[in-house]
Each structure stands twice: as structure tokens, then as C-alpha cells.
């Protein structure tokens, strides 16, 4: 965009705070190589276009915008004389992409002193070489630091997740190993008992009845009801008394196993009726091994199923073999992230899931949303731990007009009002030195706002801090529809 050319007065230019220390010769060069232009209300330049000019406002009103998704969000509106915008990094040259990083428009006739980008760059290097070196160091140093700390933060997050996953996998894996060892021992005893029974003076019909009872016993184990502690205790006493009354040794030791397997007095009566009295102790012992092996196999199945679920959750969290942009169920993503972080969350923090399961799938980059959930949950846990270590983390989903809401609420001390506007800034952190990089919320904001065209906001009072992620339910008109998840 270009305005109407006007006369450039070196004395007027010298009254701007950027140029007030320049000599008359320098001001004369500025006017010779720059120009004054009058812009009518409307756009001056657009974000993303090549940055060709540096603008300094002489009088009028200027508004700066940033593109967020499909919307233009107003960043600054001012009538302060001397404010500047445009090709402010021209002095760096082609080491960075020289484009406008925002859009500028004026709301009333506004005059600018306009300097071509090349002229601005050469004047900066010639007149202020030390300042240019300092600014270049600040610019590239900040970028390098952000990149390196970002990599470090991802490694720390990976280490935390790995530790949590290892912790979660260890319990079912250890249980499976213990159960397998016990199962081998029980099967060996069962073989021995079967050898003793088969070598005894038992008729074929008695052995057939015993095998039939064994089959029915295994079926009962698979359908064992869940009992309260009081119910289980009462049944154990009754079964133990029955075994003692029928001359079965160590009845008190067998009773808990039988009750756990769902076997009651009626079943014991059926066993006693099916075999001769002299066979009953051996039959009960053999059936006890049957029950124990079934229970151990159930334990192994439960443990290996748990391991499989953890592996599936890890795969879901990392989105291996998934399309990067697809229709996703946020509840699956939240559950996988909570599972991955369960080791870090610990037992002293209560996790409450307040999900609206009627919500539809949304177009998203699932792996990156998982990174957002990770950062917000990690911050909530740190806040609670810093306030005594006990509290509640509530994860809520719902519909907010035409957007999907994911809210993380913690009972920590809250975010102080004086820093609330800074928490999304890069490198800003309230954690102790070495514990936080200050990039978690910055990364989360960029993923939610820039990549998903949503919003990320915080509401906080002591004991009630809520980070709210709002995501669109559909894609924008200029976006390709994502794949549907299998």
C-alpha cells in the first residue's frame, strides 16, 4: 500500500523520539532517502508480505493486528507520536525471512515518515554498528536459546513420561512374573496329585466324576461374583467349618481360595456326593490346585492385559502410525496423557474426570494436543505439590457455544494477578531455577492458537485455577478435511 507523498521536513523528523539525537546532516540524509506519506483510513501493509519499509508515525491513529487462525486479532491501537512498525529487522539482512510480522491499518488520515528497508538497514549499520551487533546477538541468541531449551524441555518431558510408563508397567509385569512362578509350582503339584489318584484303588467312574467336577469348578472360577469383605469373611468361616467337619486337613488355608473362586457349601456338598468318602480329601486337594491355577491364569491375563493397555496408551499418546491431522476424540487423548503422567501425579492428588461424552470428534493434530495436555497437567501438579502436595485436579470437557472446551482445574495457590498476563511469554516461569524453562505455556499457546485456531486462557483465584482450551468443532474453509480415525 502507498500513501500520498508529502514534503519531508528535517526539523519535524528530528522531533520524533527515535531521531532526536541525530545531527542536522543525519536528519537531512533521512529526508533525502526517506519520504513522508499521508495514508487515508484503511490498510497500510499486511502480515506475511515482503517487509519493504520502516514506518514512523508523525500524527494520526494506527492499529496493529496479528493473524490468529482465520481471524485478525488487534494487538495495539495508539495515537502516540513517534511509534514505529514495519521492517524493524531489516538490519539483519537475508539471514531471516524479511516479511511483515503483523498487519497495520489507520483509522483516520495519518502521516508516516517512511524509510525503505534497504536504506534503514544501511543507515543502522553505518550510524549504530555497536547497537546492530547487540541487537543481532539478542535476536539470534534468543532464537538459539529457545530452540535449545525447547529440545531440553522435550527431553525432560520424555524422561518424565518414560519414568511414569516404566513405573506403571512394572507393577503388572512383576505380578505376571510372580503368578507364572506360582502357576508352575501348582501345576507340578497337580501332576503329582493326579499321579497319586490314578495309582490308587479308585474306580473309573469315580475318576470320571472327579474330572467332570474339575471342569465345572473351572467354569465357576470364571464366573466368580465380587464379594464385600464382610461377605467373604462369613463364607470363609462356613467353608472352613465344612472342610473341618469332613476331615479335610488345613481347611482354614483352603477356604479363602475356594471363596475367592466363588465356591460355596452347595458346591462342596456336590463334590462330597460325587465321590466316595475316602477319596474326598484327595479330590478336594486336587480341586484346590485346579482353583489356584485358574486364579493364577486370571491374574496373568489381567496383568498382561494391563500391560497391553499401557502400550496402547503410549502409542495413543505418541500417535504412532496415525495421521498427523485427523478427526480425534479428545477424551482418548486426555486419558492417554493422564495415564502417561500417572506416575508424576502420584497418589496424593485426586484426579476427577468430568467428561461430556456426547461431544463429537474434532479436527486436530492429536500428538500436539497431547503435548498441550502434558504441559497443563504438569503445571497443575507442580502448583499442587508446591502447596503441600495434596489436592484435586479436575479435567472437564464440554461445549462452549460453537467450540469444544477442555478445562484443567487445580486446587493450588493460583496465579498472581500481576503475572497473569506474562505466563504465556517465552521463558517466563514461576518455578525454581532449573525446574522450569518457561516454554511450556508458550508452546501450548502456539499449538492451540496458531495451529488449531483455538484459544487458551486462564482464570485463577487461590484454590481454583482453571486453564481453558477452546477448540473449533470444524475445519476452516481453507483447510483440507482430516482423516477419520479408525
From TrEMBL:
PANTHER family: HISTIDINE KINASE (PTHR43065:SF48), SENSOR HISTIDINE KINASE (PTHR43065). It catalyses: ATP + protein L-histidine = ADP + protein N-phospho-L-histidine. Its EC number is 2.7.13.3. It is an enzyme of class 2 (transferase). This is histidine kinase. SMART domains: cNMP, HATPase_c. Transmembrane segments: none annotated. Keywords: Kinase, Transferase, Two-component regulatory system. It comes from Streptomyces chromofuscus. One of its GO terms (molecular function) is protein histidine kinase activity. Pfam families: cNMP_binding, HATPase_c. Residues 296-475 form the Histidine kinase domain. PROSITE patterns: CNMP_BINDING_3, HIS_KIN. GO terms for biological process: phosphorelay signal transduction system.
Amino acid at each position: 500500500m502507498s500513501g500520498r507523498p508529502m514534503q519531508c521536513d528535517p526539523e519535524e523528523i528530528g522531533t520524533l523520539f527515535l531521531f532526536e539525537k541525530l545531527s542536522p546532516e543525519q536528519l537531512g540524509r533521512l529526508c533525502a532517502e526517506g519520504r513522508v506519506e499521508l495514508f487515508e483510513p484503511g490498510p497500510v501493509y499486511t502480515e506475511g508480505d515482503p517487509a519493504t519499509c520502516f514506518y514512523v508515525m508523525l500524527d494520526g491513529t494506527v492499529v496493529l493486528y496479528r493473524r490468529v487462525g482465520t481471524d485478525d486479532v488487534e494487538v495495539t491501537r495508539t495515537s502516540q507520536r513517534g511509534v514505529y512498525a514495519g521492517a524493524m529487522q531489516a538490519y539483519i539482512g537475508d539471514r531471516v525471512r524479511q516479511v511483515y510480522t503483523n498487519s497495520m491499518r489507520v483509522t483516520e488520515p495519518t502521516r508516516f515518515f517512511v524509510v525503505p528497508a534497504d536504506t534503514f538497514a544501511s543507515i543502522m549499520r553505518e550510524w549504530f554498528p555497536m547497537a546492530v551487533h547487540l541487537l543481532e546477538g539478542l535476536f539470534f541468541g534468543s532464537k538459539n536459546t529457545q530452540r535449545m531449551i525447547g529440545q531440553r524441555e522435550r527431553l525432560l518431558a520424555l524422561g518424565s513420561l518414560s519414568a511414569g510408563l516404566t513405573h506403571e508397567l512394572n507393577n503388572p509385569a512383576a505380578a505376571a512374573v510372580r503368578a507364572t512362578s506360582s502357576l508352575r509350582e501348582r501345576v507340578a503339584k497337580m501332576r503329582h496329585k493326579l499321579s497319586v489318584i490314578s495309582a490308587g484303588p479308585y474306580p473309573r467312574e469315580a475318576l470320571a466324576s472327579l474330572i467332570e467336577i474339575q471342569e465345572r469348578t473351572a467354569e465357576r472360577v470364571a464366573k466368580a461374583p465380587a464379594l464385600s469383605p464382610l461377605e467373604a469373611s462369613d463364607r470363609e468361616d462356613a467353608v472352613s467349618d465344612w472342610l473341618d467337619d469332613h476331615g479335610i486337613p488345613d481347611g482354614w488355608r483352603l477356604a479363602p481360595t475356594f471363596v475367592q473362586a466363588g465356591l460355596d457349601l452347595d458346591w462342596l456338598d456336590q463334590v462330597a456326593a460325587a465321590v466316595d468318602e475316602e477319596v474326598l480329601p484327595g479330590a478336594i486337594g486336587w480341586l484346590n490346585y485346579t482353583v489356584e491355577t485358574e486364579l493364577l491364569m486370571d491374574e496373568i491375563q489381567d496383568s498382561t492385559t494391563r500391560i497391553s493397555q499401557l502400550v496402547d496408551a503410549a502409542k495413543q499418546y505418541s500417535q504412532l502410525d496415525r495421521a498427523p491431522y485427523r478427526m480425534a476424540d479428545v477424551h482418548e487423548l486426555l486419558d492417554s496423557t493422564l495415564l502417561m503422567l500417572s506416575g508424576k501425579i502420584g497418589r496424593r492428588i485426586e484426579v476427577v474426570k468430568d467428561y461430556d461424552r456426547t461431544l463429537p470428534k474434532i479436527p486436530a493434530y492429536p500428538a500436539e494436543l497431547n503435548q498441550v495436555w502434558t504441559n497443563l497437567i504438569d503445571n497443575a501438579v507442580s502448583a499442587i505439590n508446591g502447596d503441600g502436595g495434596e489436592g484435586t485436579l479436575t479435567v472437564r470437557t464440554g461445549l462452549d457455544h460453537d467450540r469444544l472446551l477442555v478445562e484443567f482445574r487445580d486446587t493450588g495457590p493460583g496465579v498472581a494477578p500481576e503475572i497473569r498476563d506474562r505466563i504465556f511469554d517465552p521463558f517466563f516461569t514461576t518455578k525454581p531455577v532449573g525446574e522450569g524453562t518457561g516454554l511450556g505455556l508458550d508452546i501450548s499457546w502456539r499449538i492451540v492458537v496458531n495451529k488449531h485456531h483455538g484459544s487458551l486462557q486462564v482464570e485463577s483465584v487461590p484454590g481454583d485455577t482453571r486453564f481453558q482450551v477452546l477448540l473449533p468443532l470444524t475445519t476452516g474453509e481453507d483447510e483440507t478435511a482430516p482423516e477419520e480415525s479408525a
